[in-house]
Amino acid sequence: MRRARRSLGAGRLDDAVKTWRALLLAEPESLPGHVGLGTVLRRMGRIAESEAVFRTGLERHPDAPALLAALAETLAAWEATDEAVAAAEKAASLAPTRPEVLLIVARLRFARGEDTRGRAALDAAFESNPKHGPTLLALGRRLRLEGNPERALMVLERALEQSPNDPEIGVQRALTLLAAGRLVEGFRAYEARWKTAEMRGLGGMEALDPGCPPWDGSPLAGRSLLIRAEQGLSECLQFCRLVAGIEGGRILLETPQELVPLIRASRLADEVVPRSYGPDAKVPDADCWAPLMSLPDLLSIDGEAIPTEIPYLRPDPSLLAPWRNRLGSGVKIGIAWRGGDPLFEGRRRAVPLSAFQALSSLPGVRLISLQKGEGRQEIDAVPFGVEDPTDEMDEGDGAFLDTAAVMESLALVITVDSAIAHLAGALGRPVWTVLPEGGDWRFGWDMRESPWYPSMTCFRRTPRGGWPALFAELALRIEAMRDGRDPDTVERKPIQAGPAGPAGPAGPAGLAGDQMAPPTIAQTPGATQTEESETERQAETPMMPAAPLAEPAEPVRPVVNPVKTPIQEDPSHSATDMKEERPASPPDGSFVV
């Protein structure tokens, strides 16, 4: 067993599989053998084999919490959420004081949108062992997502005392510092990302290193600097602005292929090339290099030094008139409701398209889809009209050039945290970004204003009203803007929200005088649907009164706080992951014994 665990710790997964299988051949009843082999197979993406191993083990040990909990994680990888929750809850009932089991329950509950039940399981895990490192890590992350970065920092500092070299804790601490507005400390701590499992799975620093010396932030003095994009489209759109501030040498910027035409046309760097990794990658020669997400640290970016020269991206002028003519008249609002999965976050960036119905009820308003990839199928399932020109926007390599040109013809963009939000902000377009409770560090720490994007207003969902209440408020604000009134002075209409569970304590008892005892699993009975869906079902969106629509004679380009100016007509993308399909019945697990 020690040999298998050493192989696993060193990343030699094939060796770990061979060792666990050899153990099971010698000891077919070995509980650690079944848990170990099934876990490694899951980590390798061999989900069907992993499930078969766990079910074979459960035939021998039907009430083993470790096997049930491990099976729950594998079932979750199949997206068999109901089965996964049942297995995890049974494991928790058999081992109510084992924090690692309770953590699995919490993670599954959060994944189903059952935040109250997830928080109860997480608090129960903390109560069972206040020094358990993974529990402290999960609790710290949760507190940040709930909008309590100061308490989250306290928890994460305690986690670092238990595991001072854990890069996952280091990254969560970095994100929490950023969420609190402590940018210099946060970006410095964010360098811990290179040692995390997420980044190692992408090849880590080694996959990016082009072989020339790393840049230390010193004057270039005539040298050439290669900046390599990492992570997703959103991060590239947000932080490419920093490239323009580096002087004294030749700057080469490597970006995702989809963004090359747009960023090249915006002239942020001397040369823009498509991202290329692997042994056969063609990487431009340079004297030194830096990862894009390390630039804020190298340049000592703080709250006062964020470059806000907006726009720093510009659409292709030749595309503006064709798209304006194609989209036609009316108050056009661009919408996007689903983003990708950000690294280190553990939550989806998505809003049900049905939430936008409150906006569709406004006279004269047209909803224009900017959604790429996953989520577009929802258009056919909603009972209101959403115009979808995105097929025409995907032609050739300039998809984002088309999207940028479309945005110039829109009165407003309303979007979740996605590349669409960052693109609209970078273009200086009026954009409302809808966020879950706690917001997101990428947009800032203020409740409404984003220090990164002057033309953006952030709207955070509240636990009680959910998305229906938030979108009802947005509809009222649009009415006010169309009438020339300040939307901040609009009295919010009451909305009948469904009953919400307790928000839960702000943090574990004993961290800052909090005396509230965390609830236990026994206090949180199961449910057949998510809490969010219950809120949406019971909330009633108020009908919006009609108002005359005034169309300007010519485009009006907002300059100062454009999201509060009267709304006017014509003011001027994530790939789906390939997943293994779960067979109707798991393959025979007899190969392990």
Explain what you see.
The chain is of the alpha/beta class. It has a five-stranded parallel sheet, with helices on one face. Strand 7, helix 22 and strand 8 (about 430-435) form a beta-alpha-beta unit. It has helices at about 1-10, 15-25, 30-45, 45-60, 65-75, 80-95, 100-110, 115-130, 135-145, 150-160, 165-180, 185-190, 195-200, 205-210, 235-240, 260-265, 295-300, 315-325, 355-360, 390-395, 400-410, 420-425, 465-480, 530-540, and strands spanning about 225-230, 250-255, 270-275, 290, 330-335, 365-370, 410-415, 430-435, 455-460.
Helix content: 40-55%
Largest sheet: 5 strands, parallel
Distance between the terminal alpha carbons, to the nearest Å? Answer: 16 Å
The dominant shape is globular
- The Rg value, from CA coordinates, equals 25 Å
Strand content: 5-15%
Set down the secondary structure blueprint.
Layout: H1 2-9, H2 13-26, H3 31-43, H4 47-60, H5 65-77, H6 81-94, H7 99-111, H8 115-128, H9 133-145, H10 149-162, H11 167-179, H12 183-189, H13 197-201, H14 204-208, E1 224-228, H15 233-239, E2 250-255, H16 260-266, E3 271-274, E4 288-291, H17 295-298, H18 317-327, E5 331-336, H19 357-360, E6 365-369, H20 390-393, H21 399-408, E7 412-416, H22 419-427, E8 431-435, E9 456-460, H23 466-482, H24 531-538
Parallel strand pairs: 1-2, 1-4, 2-3, 5-6, 5-7, 7-8, 8-9
